[in-house]
Design a protein that fits this description.
Shape: elongated
Radius of gyration: 24 Å
Number of helices: 10
Largest sheet: 6 strands, mixed
Helix content: 25-40%
Low-confidence stretches: none
Structural class: alpha/beta
Distance between the termini: 46 Å
Strand content: 15-25%
Order of helices and strands: EHEHEHEHEHEHEEEHEHEHEHE
């Protein structure tokens, strides 16, 4: 049981309505006001954000919470002094506010997805897919991966066009294959899943699709095997290319890559 709910509500959509219904029915709801996150730079780019008082007025009209208020710094300190039991959405703004004002309170976080906060943006996801045998595609892609000079991550891909022809490629650095060893590898500044687009390499699947476009080869209905699950940018490229099946050996998904493939009707399979 909680005494009240606290949340940052920049917009009104079904996710927030469900959070309010689940945690503030008959209880107070305190909206996190701008005083509480004035130093939190990512929110300066949240151009969609409603004025907190307008959001509070709208939510109050739902008749769910016993009261809806906007927390100021003084209000947060006064609330904390009553040692309430709180529930908040599990996102970066909530954690910052709890650390600053409610560190001594009993706090519970709801994992409901409400927005792309920083934590969710870099979250490592494990793709769920049935297993299937990719046949010769696997051999071609694995062999190509071994030709990559990228010691940090050797990745290979192979595509089977509608006419049955198979081509393969590996991740390769530009403007020279040894660029990261001459100038330093920018990936050394990031952990996996973070800043994935900041690389001097062309990804293997992107190389195959680009080569097909250059030659006028249709990729619609083709099958693709990648040794590692595609990054979000490559997932979008695979979806736009009309690939019918995507096999992957291992790896992780970040951001919206897995959802983009599913929405495009790409059959995603883990190599057996």
């Amino acid at each position: 049981m909680t005494d009240c709910a606290v949340a940052y509500v920049p917009v009104l959509h079904e996710g927030y309505r469900r959070f309010v219904d689940a945690h503030a029915r008959g209880r107070p709801l305190h909206l996190i006001g701008p005083e509480l996150y004035v130093d939190f730079r990512p929110l300066a780019r949240d151009i969609r954000a409603l004025d907190a008082h307008l959001a509070a007025k709208a939510i109050a009209s739902w008749g769910v919470a016993s009261e809806v208020t906007v927390l100021t710094a003084a209000g947060a300190e006064a609330l904390a002094a009553t040692a309430p039991r709180l529930v908040l959405p599990d996102e970066d703004v909530s954690h910052q506010v709890v650390e600053r004002f409610f560190a001594r309170c009993e706090v519970r976080y709801d994992t409901v997805f409400l927005r792309w906060d920083k934590t969710r943006t870099v979250q490592i996801l494990r793709p769920e897919a049935p297993r299937a045998a990719p046949g010769e595609l696997a051999w071609a892609a694995e062999e190509a991966a071994g030709r990559s000079v990228d010691w940090w991550r050797q990745v290979g891909a192979a595509i089977r066009f509608a006419d049955g022809e198979v081509r393969s490629a590996h991740n390769e650095h530009l403007p020279h294959r040894l660029s990261p060893y001459a100038a330093g590898d920018p990936r050394s500044n990031f952990s996996k899943g973070v800043g994935y687009d900041l690389s001097t390499a062309t990804h293997a699947e992107a190389s195959l699709i680009a080569a097909a476009a250059r030659e006028g080869r249709a990729t619609a209905g083709a099958e693709l095997y990648v040794t590692d699950f595609p990054c979000p940018a490559c997932a979008k490229l695979v979806a736009a290319a009309g690939i019918a099946k995507l096999y992957f050996r291992e790896g992780y998904a970040v951001l919206d890559g897995e959802d983009v493939l599913a929405a495009a009707g790409v059959e995603v399979l883990r190599a057996a």
